[in-house]
Amino acid sequence: DTGVSQNPRHKITKRGQNVTFRCDPISEHNRLYWYRQTLGQGPEFLTYFQNEAQLEKSRLLSDRFSAERPKGSFSTLEIQRTEQGDSAMYLCASSFRDGSGGAGYGYTFGSGTRLTVV
Amino acid sequence: DQQVKQNSPSLSVQEGRISILNCDYTNSMFDYFLWYKKYPAEGPTFLISISSIKDKNEDGRFTVFLNKSAKHLSLHIVPSQPGDSAVYFCAAGSSGSARQLTFGSGTQLTVLP
What we know:
- Chain A is mainly β.
- Helices cover about 0% and strands about 45% of the residues of chain A.
- Chain A has strands spanning about 5, 10-15, 20-25, 30-35, 45-50, 55, 65-70, 75-80, 90-95, 110, 115.
- By secondary structure, chain B is mainly beta.
- Chain B is about 0% helix and about 55% strand.
- Chain B is globular.
- Chains A and B meet through strand 5, strand 9 and strand 10 of A and strand 4, strand 5, strand 9 and strand 10 of B.
């Protein structure tokens, strides 16, 4: 297992188009998180899954955003009708339920998908 | 409303000297804190954590200090090395909130050879 994998690494899209990102977490981890990071800021929480259940969503996650984790393994994040303000790095992270697994209470992050809306 | 603040966007330190990165928080519900390091084009990497029941945690060259009364924590790196040059994020969480983390805006550390 090589860690958390995110695809694509970069995505350029025209305003109004839909985009979908994929995250493959560490296989033993049952929690999966999506964060968004804009320039000069730290990551901001968007949503998290425990297995296939989406248990928490931030108010940052407007109705144009939808996330799924259909079989409790990989996850997808879709943005519909993209806007220039959606340009950001989208980070996925995974962890064990009790926060153990080598990173204390923390996560293992992927390298992110950088979205540019033009 | 920034619940976790890193007021220094950048810090430069000479190789071999101590680097001190600071972080303040406002939410009393936070009961654990973490530091992450981020290189360009990579995701954040966990560095060290501390629970609110402790005031110090040490791991090799890295030590985190927590002052709960001041709602302040700091990361000390001794001795600093050029490979430590990265953006450092402070993050805080609450055990009752499913491990959702609140991050600061980061401090760019540059260690000069």
